[in-house]
Amino acid sequence: MTRRFYILMAVLFLLLVLAAVGSALVGVAAIQPSELLHSQIFLQLRLPRILLSILAGAGLSVCGAAYQSVFRNPLTDPYVLGISSGASLGASLAILFGLQAYLWGVGLAALVAALGTVLLVYRIASIGNRLHTTTLLLTGVCLTFLITAVISFIMVLRQDKMDSIIFWTMGSFASASWFDVAVVAPVVVIGMVAVAFHSKDLNLLLTGSETARSLGVDVERVKKVLLFFTTLIVAFVVSSCGVIGFVGLVVPHCVRLVLGADNRRIIPASILLGALFVLLCDTMARTVLQPSELPVGSLTALVGAPLFIYLLYKNKKQY
Amino acid sequence: MSHVPAIELRALTCGYKDRTILDSIDITVERGGFYAIMGANGCGKTTLLRCIAGLLPPRKGEVLIDGKRISDYSPRHLAQQLSLVRQHQQTDLDFTAEEIVMMGRNPYQSRLANESEEDRSIVEDSMRLTNTLHLRKEHPWSISGGELQRVMIARSLAQQTPIMLLDEPISNLDISHQFEIMDMLVDFNRSQGKTILIVVHDINLAYRYCPQLILLHNKQVLYQGPTAEGFTEERIEDVFGVKAHKGEEGITLRRK
Questions:
Q1: Do A213 and B99 touch (CB under 8 A)?
Q2: Which of these, A29, A192, B186, B188, has the minimum number of CB atoms within 10 Å of its CB?
Q3: Quick one: A124 exposed, middle or buried, by C-beta within 10 A (0-12, 13-18, 19+)?
Q4: What residues pair up with A292 in beta bridges, in sequence order?
Q5: Which residue of B has its CA nearest to A221?
Q6: Domain that holds residue B27
């Protein structure tokens, strides 16, 4: 099992490097490998885009894996606490008021609204000093519906802005810049390290919070630390590239099907697989119908869902 | 040297929301003792164990483990003092039996280090003692209730705590498996000097295996002391509402 894990990690890492190089060479303007490091298209457009998609894929997958263990629910994804809807609302309002003109105007609005939404969810769901996870989930889901309804109203009232809002909501790396990378990278990297540091606690949380506690886990503290870092990761990722669904839900499950339930393997493998998956999806998004772009947020599901269903089906036969 | 009991409850009151389950009870559990906790359904046996395990903060009074207030223990340190085998087991876990038993080593491990040789040999010993070694690669959903119960006891052993708390570990098992587990616990108690508190329902099993008895009734401790003297026919009738007759072969029970 351990050997299988290391082999898989090596393969994933290699594929990620290959995919990144491949992605750098293809596009509307094809670049010769020898010219890569001198190409402004590569240095100013493609490289930040590649890095941002890697960060987003890795970050979302880690958060999905962590949430699925913290909430002991296989259906949780990184957006379950209302982060994506909050970010979308912030972005919609920013678009409405014309903040696109400013550097990261929409992103900042999305970030603030995302964090505000999650804080509200935590506030509602905490009893004294404790976080009740079922209430947390239900509050998040409920607030998501509420905010989505508000966004629909905004779009109906201001149909001239509808396209921009819809486009933002579907997720895209088309406008990725070095600035985005500089803002998102530290948060995602530190957050991932923090989550990985608690991998064993995640395993124990899967046995239930009381059992985890009687096995020596400081459950309330661990939950708070994990939710803090995951919230930051998701909020920053969503603010920089919009809502990219499916990745955070399914990547950890794919890894689980191959490697078993141990989060000490799931977390690092999810980082690599998530990064690879989103990078490939974004490369497809910008090349398949070039020069026009497909929305990467729906490509992830379009490509990923059949793959995942196949994996599920294949594993079913083993019982 | 002064004498410090393994567990001491002083005027402990606890409960849920508006409901008081245990009202100002005092219990002393001696080191190396083997205690049966008994009482009718809903009398607070599980609540008592949850209080002792630090899972339910007391409303009033104190819980002392090894002479120290339970709130002064970190979860990690407490998990080195006492282990808990819960009444209901989770069967949908995707971990193997061996991984589950290894979780018992968590209070001794650092976050990043891998399992040590020592951890592995303790896990193996625990599984051997509970006769679960052959199940090491099995999952909770692929083994029987009795086997899973033994795996949980193995995890509790791997925790290497001086105190073991067990909440109805045998209630769902057939009689021969009940004997098997009780024999095992007696052995841990005698050979390893573990202090054992076990919630049981079967009066005769408690009578036969557990030297000490804690009898809960009406939010109070009705009796604590040697089991043989604890089970009088009147007390059994008061607590369980059945007629009891103490004979050579044990206690026979019938409806009132």
A1: no
A2: A29
A3: middle
A4: none
A5: B75
A6: 7-255
> Is residue A211 within 8 angstroms of chain B, CB to CB?
yes
Q: Rounded to an integer, what distance in angstroms lies between the CA atom of residue A64 and that of residue A249?
A: 6
pTM: 0.89
Q: What secondary structure letter does DSSP report for A169? A: H
How many domains are contained in chain B? Answer: 1
Nearest to A204 among B77, B82, B106 (CB): B106
The amino acid present at A114, given as its one-letter code, is A
| Residue bearing tokens 């109070």 | B220
Q: What angle do CA B191, B76, A67 make, to 5 degrees?
A: 125
Chain A residues lying within 8 Å of B77, measured CB to CB: 216
pLDDT at residue number A163: 83
Measured at the CA of A140, the angle between CA A93 and CA A312, to 5 degrees, comes to: 110
Contact between B21 and B56 (Cβ < 8 Å): no
Query: Would you say residue B2 lies in a domain?
Result: no
User: Can you tell me the distance from the alpha carbon of A186 to that of A298, in angstroms, rounded to the nearest whole number?
Assistant: 27
Q: Do B95 and A203 touch (CB under 8 A)?
A: yes
Domains of chain A: 2-6+17-26+44-309 (1.10.3470.10)
Tell me what the mean pLDDT of segment A257-265 comes to: 90
**What CA–CA distance (Å, rounded) separates A218 from A222?**
6
Regions of chain B where pLDDT drops below 70: 1-2
